[in-house]
Amino acid sequence: MGTYAKRLSAMQNNFETAQSDYKDAFTSGVPAGVYAFKLSRFEMGETSNNTLAMFREQVITEGEHKGETVFDMLAIESDFGMKKCLTFYDQMGYEIEGLKATDIEEIAEAIAADEPSYKGRLRYSKGGFPNVSIMEVYENEDDSGESPADEAPVDEAPAEEEATQEESVNDVDEVLDRVKEFCTIRGIPVQDDDDMDAITEVFKDYTFKKSELDIDEIQLFEDAGLTDLFEDEEVKDAPPAKKKDAAKKKDIQEKTTSSRVRKKK
Question: Is the pTM of this model over 0.70?
Answer without folding.
Answer: no
